[in-house]
Amino acid sequence: MSRILYHNLDYGELFIFKNYVIAQINEGVVLNPENNDEMRDIILNYFTDRKWVYISNRTLDYNVNPITYFETSKIDNLIGVCIITTSVIGKKTALFESEFYSKRFMVVSTVLEAIDWASEVLDE
Q1: Which residues contact 84 (CB under 8 A, 6 or more apart)?
Q2: Residue 84: which domain range?
Q3: Residue 106 contacts residue 80 (beta carbons within 8 Å)
Q4: How many folded domains does the chain comprise?
Q5: Which of 50, 62, 93, 105 would be 29's cystine partner, CB 3.0–4.6 Å?
Q6: What digits encode the pLDDT tens for the residues 36-84?
């Protein structure tokens, strides 16, 4: 089994695996490009020379400034974003956010589905 690295940030948590990152953002947070910059710097320390997928486990209610996705799209070795949500509103919100992201984007209901999707995308 691969080692899991953990980062506790003021606004959420990052779980870094071999080929993907799972983020859990705190209730009520509005993710802005500044947060994105901090997470990118942490994550790219581990993925300097290989492709990876960002998985957002939306167990809590928070918002993302859509401009954040424009910047995220510029990360060369990030090949996809997957949002985990079980609510109808959460799915609609994620689909709206996908309009601002230029790479592979998926919305699923479980962590296992997200990991499976990440593996498929990375194998392509």
Answers
A1: 55, 56, 57, 58, 59, 108, 109, 110, 111, 113, 114
A2: 5-123
A3: yes
A4: 1
A5: 62
A6: 889 999 999 999 889 999 999 999 989 899 889 988 999 999 999 999 9
